[in-house]
Design goal:
Number of strands: 2
Order of helices and strands: EHHHE
Strand content: 5-15%
Protein name: EthD domain-containing protein
Helix content: 55-70%
Organism: Polaromonas hydrogenivorans
Number of helices: 3
Largest sheet: 2 strands, antiparallel
Amino acid sequence: MSYTVKLYAFEDASPAQLQAAEQRFRQALEAALGDESLVAPVHAAYRRIVALYGETPADDVLSPEELEIFSQWQAAESAALTAALGPNRYMGDAQFEIRG
C-alpha cells in the first residue's frame, strides 16, 4: 500500500461501517486515477497546487499540467466520496485523511 486513508466521522458509525467506507473510498479513488501507485503522488501534487493558488484557482493561472492534476484529483475525490458515503447519509459530515 502506497498510502493510507482514515475516515473521521462526526456522527455515530460503527468501526465496521467506517472500515467499509474507507475501503469504498480507496477503491473508487484508485479506479478514478488508474492505479494505487498514483494516489499519493497525485494527492501531493494537488496539495501543492492548493497551497500555491488556493482551493478554487482560476484556470488561467494554472499551467496545463497543474490544471490536469487539479482536475483529475477533484474528479477522483468526488467519485471516492460518492462511493464511500453515498448510501450512508448519516456520515455526511465525514472527512477523509490521506497519507502517502
